[in-house]
């Protein structure tokens, strides 16, 4: 029931590969369909890398299970490996031992450019026509005019606080960056280099003199200011988290009272037998976020089962189950009528078909040395972010 659980693992990604990515990676007007011409007989097995909560088999909650019926229908016995971070996903995919992955935007470009992911024939995806158009043909699932995956779902990284301990109610990310915070030692932040973008997004709004236009495209001055803010924040941080159980527990017992979260953690705290009084919001500066994509390994031993899985996991029924269990906007818009049978407000709450809201989020992507604009190759690449994050945490 978590997105990322476990320590960060530095991806085996060369500087040459980062340079090859360039600043674009955007889709062509009419992306090409490559990959297999048809889906053959299932190979009887499937091995996938997932964010926890994306492949439930009833072991966490006997009423939450979409893996077992998939296996019964296809004969593809499914082994789901939970990854803790996007870096870990990239490293695992590079072993060639897995058939596919549910990758976020700060991993997908590396998988596409590196040849780790295979082009996907979207004509074989039975639910592709019903996928939110705003999620299609994007830099996080399409590269140089070629499709590389099936959109799964998306959401925002939120500011959460305990309403019984944090007053007045915060409306800005400044609440977690204040060096004189009254909640010093009880502030939390996501433990990953990509969190640098959260600080950059805050500075984009509060430091117009820096001229930040994209929190993932930072020149040296912008990057140094962002790193300085995060080092300042380090003095009030009680703990960094990547394991949802630890984040949930810290809010529940009061060790943490404010910080970054995902909707699933808020949902679990509010649904507990002894609910923790928390609120999760998108602050006035906006938020970073994610859009996840199912990708097929270029070394997949069970590609037919992987295509069958992509068709299964993007169906309205299964999308509705995943979205409600995890707490995210489903990619398939036809999931909303299904969800509406039990939760009439869910799709409105998660802004499922709100394109303006989606485009307003700064979705995770791979930081590149090429700024993607007239500045050229003066931005900080992913290796710089990795090094800085280690320095920030001390």
UniProtKB/TrEMBL annotation:
Keywords linked to the UniProt accession: Signal
Lineage top rank: taxon: Bacteria
Pfam families named in the record: SBP_bac_8
InterPro entries: SBP
Signal peptide: 1-27
The UniProt record lists the keyword Phosphoprotein: no
Protein name per UniProt: ABC transporter substrate-binding protein
């Amino acid at each position: 029931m978590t997105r990322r659980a476990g320590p960060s693992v530095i991806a085996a990604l060369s500087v040459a590969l980062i340079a090859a990515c360039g600043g674009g990676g955007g889709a062509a007007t009419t992306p090409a369909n490559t990959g297999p011409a048809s889906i053959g007989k299932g190979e009887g097995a499937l091995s996938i890398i997932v964010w926890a909560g994306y492949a439930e088999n009833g072991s966490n909650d006997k009423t939450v299970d979409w893996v077992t019926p998939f296996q019964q229908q296809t004969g593809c016995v499914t082994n789901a490996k939970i990854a803790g971070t996007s870096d870990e996903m990239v490293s695992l995919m590079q072993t060639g031992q897995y058939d596919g992955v549910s990758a976020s935007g700060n991993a997908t470009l590396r998988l596409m450019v590196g040849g780790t992911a295979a082009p996907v024939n979207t004509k074989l995806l039975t639910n592709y026509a019903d996928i939110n158009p705003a999620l299609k043909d994007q830099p996080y699932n399409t590269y140089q005019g070629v499709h590389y995956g099936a959109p799964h779902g998306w959401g925002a990284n939120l500011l959460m606080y305990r309403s019984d301990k944090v007053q007045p109610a915060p409306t800005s990310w400044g609440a977690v960056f204040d060096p004189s915070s009254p909640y010093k030692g009880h502030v939390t932040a996501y433990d990953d280099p990509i969190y640098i973008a959260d600080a950059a997004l805050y500075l984009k709004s509060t430091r117009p003199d820096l001229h930040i236009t994209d929190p993932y495209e930072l020149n040296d001055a912008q990057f140094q200011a962002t790193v300085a803010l995060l080092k300042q924040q380090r003095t009030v941080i009680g703990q960094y988290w990547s394991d949802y159980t630890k984040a949930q527990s810290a809010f529940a017992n009061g060790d943490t009272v404010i910080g970054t979260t995902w909707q699933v953690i808020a949902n679990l705290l509010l649904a507990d037998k002894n609910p923790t009084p928390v609120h999760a919001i998108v602050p006035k500066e906006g938020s970073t976020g994610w859009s996840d994509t199912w990708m097929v390994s270029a070394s997949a031993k069970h590609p037919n089962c992987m295509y069958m899985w992509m068709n299964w996991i993007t169906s309205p029924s299964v999308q509705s189950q995943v979205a409600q269990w995890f707490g995210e906007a489903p990619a398939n818009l036809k999931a909303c009528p299904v969800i509406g049978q039990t939760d009439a407000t869910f799709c409105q709450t998660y802004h499922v078909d709100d394109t303006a809201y989606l485009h307003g989020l700064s979705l995770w992507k791979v930081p590149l040395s090429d700024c993607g604009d007239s500045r050229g190759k003066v931005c900080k690449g992913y290796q710089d972010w990795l090094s800085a994050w280690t320095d920030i945490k001390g």
